């Protein structure tokens, strides 16, 4: 399999070590339901994992839960609920959504709140090595200590500054030596959860959470680390800096990012209120239809959802089901050719639109009732294992 690597800007072969691949995907901050943008991201990594499993590669899949950060604490405060109760409820809902979408279970779903001690240790190491500094009860990462800061995103400092401002990085914080320095540790406000540290009773910054959780759960370097492409800067850029400054180099072999999903002319986001929740779709259509809707888009191309897309995915699913209902249509040689072509698409940087066009072709050929002379493979025998690779289960339909 070949995957586009954000760090090099090129497609590169994914080479397992001892038949194994470690996969770390940044999970949600559990304060709201999962939407179609989340589904597109986690579906993409699920297809990668399923394809690798189909080749007998042992995938260890990790998806963290960011249950301590500014967003969840703000929402918990606004609603007057405990952040843990909010996090538990939303995490359960999200896991149910992903399971109902037919995603494989992850092997570990570490929560930030359960590994604060390890985060404090990592921050201590960064301070010892001169890559972090303390101001009052705060600890910041010193980006000037990393000349390559910005190399993952390819952004210059002005572009990073602008994004930092948009994405809550608070570049105007007067305690910072450099506006792009980011928080590793901060004192907790009176109504926020707190953990002891050498600097203050406080809580970790978001970026250090993922670096530490990934290093706890997976062998380094991590084979695939990814998430939505809005995480490239600052989150993943900062993760690389923290890991390398602590002596972990290389930290990640492939950075894989999934493009954003829009709706009504804007990126789907909580703040804009233009969300299409996974649960709403699951209430109306089979999970397989949603998987086909997602597969119709390449993971590196941003797209905009509209209900017409869902209707097209539904008719596609109906065509596949109809094709699977009729007699043998393919010779063993034909079937092997289709199988190989389909897998070649997935292996080519997860080209799911290409893979669907192969299934469409199978469906359009599967129109003659009864056995085609000389054929002994049914469309169902041919299609079912291919649908399994993209997570579209017949049983769920
Ligand atoms: Zn992360």
Structural class assignment:
alpha/beta
What's the overall average pLDDT, rounded? 95
| Largest sheet: spatial strand order | 4-3-9-10
- End-to-end distance, in Å? 29 Å
Number of strands: 15
Name the beta content range: 15-25%
Q: How would you sum up the major sheet?
A: 4 strands, parallel
Rg (CA only) = 23 Å
Give the CATH topology of the largest domain: Rossmann fold
Number of helices: 13
What's the CATH class of the largest domain, please? Answer: Alpha Beta
Q: What's the SSE blueprint?
A:
Blueprint: E1 2-5, E2 10-13, E3 20-25, H1 36-54, E4 58-63, H2 70-79, H3 83-100, H4 116-128, E5 132-135, E6 138-141, H5 157-166, E7 182-187, E8 202-204, H6 206-217, E9 222-228, H7 232-245, E10 252-258, E11 261-263, E12 266-267, H8 278-282, H9 287-295, E13 303-305, H10 307-323, E14 328-330, H11 332-347, H12 352-365, E15 377-378, H13 379-389
Parallel strand pairs: 3-4, 3-9, 9-10, 11-13
Antiparallel strand pairs: 1-2, 5-6, 6-7, 7-8, 11-12, 14-15
The structure holds zinc ion.
Residues 26, 210, 235 line the site of zinc ion (ZN).
In short:
By secondary structure, this protein is α/β, with parallel strands linked by helices. The protein is 42% helix and 16% strand. The protein has 2 domains: 2-263, Rossmann fold (3-Layer(aba) Sandwich), CATH 3.40.50.620; 307-389, Anticodon-binding domain of a subclass of class I aminoacyl-tRNA synthetases (Four Helix Bundle (Hemerythrin (Met), subunit A)), CATH 1.20.120.
């Amino acid at each position: 399999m070949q995957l586009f690597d954000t760090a090099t800007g090129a497609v590169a072969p994914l080479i397992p070590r001892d038949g194994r691949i470690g996969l770390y995907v940044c999970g949600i901050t559990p304060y709201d339901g999962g939407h179609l943008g989340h589904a597109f991201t986690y579906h993409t990594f699920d297809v990668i994992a399923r394809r690798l499993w189909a080749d007998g590669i042992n995938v260890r899949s990790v998806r963290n839960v960011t249950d301590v950060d500014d967003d969840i604490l703000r929402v918990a405060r606004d609603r007057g609920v405990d952040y843990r109760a909010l996090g538990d409820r939303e995490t359960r809902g999200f896991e149910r959504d992903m399971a109902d979408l037919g995603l494989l279970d992850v092997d570990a779903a570490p929560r930030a709140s359960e590994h604060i001690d390890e985060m404090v240790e990592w921050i201590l190491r960064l301070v010892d090595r001169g890559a972090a500094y303390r101001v009052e009860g705060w600890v910041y990462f010193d980006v000037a200590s990393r000349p390559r800061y910005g190399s993952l995103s390819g952004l210059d400092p002005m572009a990073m500054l602008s994004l930092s401002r948009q994405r809550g990085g608070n570049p105007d914080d007067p305690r910072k030596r450099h506006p792009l320095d980011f928080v590793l540790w901060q004192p907790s406000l009176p109504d926020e959860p707190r953990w002891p540290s050498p600097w203050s009773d406080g809580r970790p910054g978001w970026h250090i959470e993922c670096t530490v959780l990934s290093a706890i759960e997976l062998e380094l370097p991590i084979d695939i680390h990814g998430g939505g492409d809005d995480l490239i800067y600052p989150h993943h850029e900062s993760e690389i800096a923290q890991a390398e400054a602590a002596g972990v180099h290389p930290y990640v072999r492939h950075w894989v990012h999934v493009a954003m999903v829009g709706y009504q002319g804007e990126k789907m986001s909580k703040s804009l209120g233009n969300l299409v929740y996974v649960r709403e779709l699951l209430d109306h259509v089979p999970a397989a239809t949603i998987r086909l809707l997602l597969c119709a888009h390449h993971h590196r191309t941003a797209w905009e959802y509209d209900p017409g897309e869902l209707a097209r995915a539904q008719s596609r699913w109906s065509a596949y089901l109809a094709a699977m209902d009729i007699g043998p249509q393919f010779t063993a040689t034909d079937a092997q050719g289709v199988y190989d072509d389909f897998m070649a698409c997935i292996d080519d940087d997860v080209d799911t639109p290409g893979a669907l066009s192969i299934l469409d072709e199978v469906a359009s050929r599967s129109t003659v009732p009864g056995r085609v002379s000389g054929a002994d493979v049914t469309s169902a025998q041919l299609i079912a294992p291919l649908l399994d690779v993209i997570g579209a289960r017949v049983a769920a339909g």
